[in-house]
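pls ignore typos typing on phone
adenosine monophosphate + seq
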Amino acid sequence: MNILTNADLHCHSDVSDGTLTPEALAARARGNGVELWALTDHDELSGQHRAMAAAAEQGLPYLTGTEISVTFAGLTVHIVGLGVDPDDVRLKAGLQATRGGRENRAREMAEQLAAVGIKGAFEGALQYVGNPDLISRTHFARFLVEARVCSSTHEVFRHYLTEGKPGFVPHRWAALGDAVSWINGAGGMAILAHPARYRTTPTEEYALFSEFKAHGGQGVEVVTGSHTAAEYVKYAEMAQEFGLYASRGSDFHSPEESHTDLGSLPDLPGALQPVWEALRDRVIHPH
Ligand code: AMP
Ligand code: MN
Ligand code: MN
Ligand code: MN
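k done
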């Protein structure tokens, strides 16, 4: 596997806030020409054994994965862990603790929405939840589209559920150092997900990269469905400046909602070290 490998190392199933099962994602990845795949459900590993089995059935090389929600300097930041042992006790306990506040947060979100005239959002969102442990803003967004409050989930996030808008409940996720340490302790590599998505000042962004690296983080997503072409260039430079391996992943959630399909991203810019070369020994090859 080299820098041109069609690796897609970031996507979500209905174990978190995607709409497809791990099995359907494996088939879609294979059909779209993905050559190395990872399922990275938010704060969850419970889809990993199914994803591994489905990848093997499709003849698709696989890396285990998860995407951990972190609070850093008051911002929500996502850390992808690849090549982790999906049965690692400390990582599983950390993820369970990270998921823990989601139900109460969801009830508060529903109260705020009710106060602006949108009733029944908790029950409504629950209809879209595949895993009762993982109710997310995405499930509320799907309900608000069904209830015709907005015409798309993207519009929901613009008008509700984000800072300063009704339905936004601030939440404290895992600490950055803990998330990186759980991933490293489980034999994996920690990767800073879609860095362009965070509303940081340049100083805060530099601090995020520095602290991530100091805690033992080793990779950064350069080519992702969340970045523009100009951002591929910017984060390729950041990867080199900070000595980080580069990752590539669509962040695919749903055929109806996602702009970027599995396996459809451009290659990593040249001269970068791909995460999948460093993780060569963690790749699970089909027989
Ligand atoms: P949560 O972990 O419950 O805060 O939900 C975060 C999820 O919401 C992300 O993983 C995305 O899938 C989704 N999301 C966040 N912002 C947006 C947006 N602007 N448009 C569409 N989906 C979004
Ligand atoms: Mn998501
Ligand atoms: Mn994310
Ligand atoms: Mn994601």
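The chain is about 40% helix and 15% strand. The chain has a mean pLDDT of 98. more later
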